[in-house]
Amino acid sequence: MNTEFRQILYRQQIRPTGFASGKVGKQEKNMAVTIQQIAERANVSRGTVDRALNHRGRIDPQVAERILKLASEMGYVPRERKRKANQKKTIKIGVVTQLAKASFMLEINRGIRQAAEELKDWGVEILLKERLNVDEEEQARAIEELAEEGIQGLALMPVDCDCVREKINWLIEIKKIPVVTFNSDIVGTKRSCFVGMDNRRSGQTAAGLMGLMTGGIGKILIITGYFSNMVNNARVDGFIDETKKSFPGLEIAGVQGSFDETGEVERIIENAMKDISGINGIFVVSGGQAGVKAAFEKLAVEKRPYVIIYDQTPKNEKAIKEDTVDFLIDQNGFFQGYRPLYILTNMLLKNVMPEAENLFTEINIKTKYNL
Question: How many domains, in total, are found in the chain?
């Protein structure tokens, strides 16, 4: 079979939308899959596929994830995996997370797991330490433990405090171990880069949405998780600053901490709406969002306030489809968990540094119409 005829047959398998069908023929599985074939199937350029597969350069995270999934389905084998037999060196990368059981961690953990599985073929071992709370002493101990276990790089969701800051700089300056932060960041360190949402800008985005829904008049209740959480604080600060600037007719009815607990979110809303008249907007910047519906049902409200929440999880999708909330802002948690491990691997194995200090994910606004 000549090359031209083979290409014609291959192109006939491409779906018009550019998405993989999930069904790969035996012939394709037995052939060495090329970047060009993936590009044709995904309906993107070779350069886009190359950037996605090699985790370099700026690319829409959703496009990158689609390309990676398609490459896996087609049986693509990267050059690094082909050289696996000749690669004797094994490196260890540590990962430390917080709020391990929070709903937004579902996608972050999925990204971590997928990267860990793929990086096995590079000779990379991922050592994960999950923490349930925002506890600076626990996190500092986890960093020390990973250093004792011989990690060469660290991906960290940091607690913004002095003891964690000191541990990070100790790792970088004394132990010569590079650190990449994700989801949350920390000032006063020499970390290599940050992967995550521009949380302050996302708060501004939420303020703009709330201003449009309310007509710029009313009272807004803000519910955060932990006041020690830098991510929560940045979202709240961005929301308040933009509200004061663009919607002076909106009043902040209060900022209350829920510790990311559903029952606490329910209690806060129930008490606030009983004690403060005129609340027509609720902004939940952290977990426990299921408490919103519970509170509305308990109060038996005829017209509920407008509600904005974060993170596209199954429970939050259900809430938005049931009209419990109006908007959710998604931060692409998969990318936040996935990308730092490749950044560190490229630094350690190839001496390739991150292309920017801040690698911000998209601020994705979701409604029931575009989930």
Answer: 3
Bridge-partner residues for 180, per DSSP?
Answer: 155, 193
Q: Which two tokens stand for residue 8?
A: 């014609």
CA dist 53 → 24, 142, 238 (Å) = 19, 31, 35
Task: Report pLDDT for 32.
Answer: 66
pLDDT digits (tens, 9 = 90+) for 290-318: 999 999 999 998 899 999 999 998 999 99
Residue 82 lies in a domain: no
Q: How many angstroms separate the Cα of 369 from the Cα of each of 104, 207, 283, 321, 360?
A: 21, 21, 20, 9, 25
Looking at the fold, whether 204 and 185 belong to one and the same domain comes out as no
Q: How far apart, in whole angstroms, are the C-alpha atoms of residue 118 and residue 115?
A: 5
Report the run of H or E that residue 171 belongs to, with start and end.
helix 162-173
Q: What is the CATH number of the domain that holds 7?
A: 1.10.260.40
For residue 228, give every residue at least 6 positions away whose Cβ sits within 8 Å of its Cβ, in sequence order, or none. 134, 159, 160, 161
Residue 275 CA, distance from chain mean position:
36
- Residue 206 one-letter amino acid: A
Q: What letters, b where the CB count within 10 A reaches 16 and e where it falls short, cover 260-277?
A: bbbebbbbbbbebbeeee
Tens of pLDDT along 179-212?
A: 999 999 999 999 999 999 999 999 999 999 999 9
Domain that holds residue 188: 89-196+333-361
